């Protein structure tokens, strides 16, 4: 079937949005999760768009979906449509001078689980008319494309269209639970001067795919490999719970570790970079009273954590 009669003005906008999401995530499953849809629903949307276009847009490969030539030709125009729609949405949001409505936040898993609940509970008491959507993810959401209204990030954003406020620098440390030390093969306290061979006698908690910790150890003069970490997960919440369960030695924020008296700080002489906390929103969204209210409340509340 020819694509000459395809008219996007008569096409459901959700079909275009679903198409772009699948392109960006490479699979129906991940795209559906990002959109908050079921996989069958997104699959039907792609099939409907293919019917409207008159050609297959994806083909299945071993690691997911791959664009066909027809699909590839639609990517840039579809992204332009998405960008224009988001700009329109931000322009409309900036004219919203009321408090009633929704603010979408994004933050890391640890911040979402251990920092924000009490803060958002107080926000709800003060402003019950404001609804909150929270995206708990270590992936950096794109504020320019309205994936979130406000982001709590651990790196400074560089886009000129964003407003960024540096809130704090959270100290980090190495910790181990007393239950692990009770059964450790080498119960001798660790120090920053210990060599890798001695450190390797202990079980360490690290990342699976990310090489962030490996790079950090190597920068400190400890040439380790991924196998140095006997327990590996890229999910920060899982690693934190593993640390509390006594699986091994891990890294955590000092203020969070202080809430657990059974955690012992080790290798205190080894300096660790502090975790910067940035609060970010789009310049246009800052003119929204609702978003400005949440932004300022988060800024004050997050700053208080440092002095607890």
Automatic annotation (TrEMBL):
**Pfam name, any one:** HTH_1
Asked if the Swiss-Prot or TrEMBL record annotates the protein with the keyword Transcription, the reply is yes
Q: What is this protein called?
A: LysR family transcriptional regulator
Q: Which InterPro entries match?
A: LysR-type_TF_proteobact-type, LysR_HTH_N, LysR_subst-bd, WH-like_DNA-bd_sf, WH_DNA-bd_sf
> What residue stretches are annotated with the HTH lysR-type domain?
11-68
Record the organism: Undibacterium arcticum
**Family note:** Belongs to the LysR transcriptional regulatory family.
Q: Which UniProt keywords apply?
A: DNA-binding, Transcription, Transcription regulation
**Coiled-coil boundaries:** none
Transcription listed as a keyword: yes
């Amino acid at each position: 079937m020819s694509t000459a009669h395809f008219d996007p003005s008569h096409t459901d906008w959700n079909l275009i949005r679903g198409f772009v999401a699948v392109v960006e995530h490479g699979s129906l499953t991940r795209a559906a999760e990002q959109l908050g849809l079921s996989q069958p629903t997104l699959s039907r949307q792609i099939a409907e768009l293919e019917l409207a276009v008159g050609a297959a847009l994806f083909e299945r490969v071993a690691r997911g979906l791959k664009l066909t030539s027809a699909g590839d030709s639609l990517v840039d125009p579809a992204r332009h449509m998405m960008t224009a729609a988001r700009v329109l949405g931000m322009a409309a949001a900036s004219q919203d001078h009321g408090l009633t409505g929704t603010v979408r936040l994004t933050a890391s898993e640890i911040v979402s689980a251990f920092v924000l609940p009490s803060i958002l509970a107080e926000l709800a008491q003060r402003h019950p008319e404001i609804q909150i959507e929270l995206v708990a993810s270590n992936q950096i959401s794109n504020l320019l494309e309205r994936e979130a209204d406000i982001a709590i990030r651990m790196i400074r954003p560089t886009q000129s269209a964003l407003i960024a406020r540096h809130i704090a620098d959270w100290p980090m440390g190495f910790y181990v639970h007393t239950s692990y030390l009770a059964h450790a093969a080498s119960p001798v306290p660790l120090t920053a001067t210990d060599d890798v061979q001695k450190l390797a006698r202990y079980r360490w908690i690290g990342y699976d795919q990310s090489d962030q910790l490996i790079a950090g150890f190597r920068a400190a003069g400890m040439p380790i490999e991924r196998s140095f970490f006997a327990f590996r997960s890229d999910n920060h919440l899982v690693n934190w719970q593993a640390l509390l369960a006594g699986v091994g030695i891990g890294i955590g924020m000092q203020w969070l570790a202080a809430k657990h008296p059974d955690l012992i700080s080790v290798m205190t002489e080894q300096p660790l970079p502090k975790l910067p906390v940035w609060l970010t929103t789009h310049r246009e969204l800052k003119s929204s009273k609702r978003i400005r209210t949440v932004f300022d409340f988060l800024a004050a509340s997050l700053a208080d954590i440092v002095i607890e």
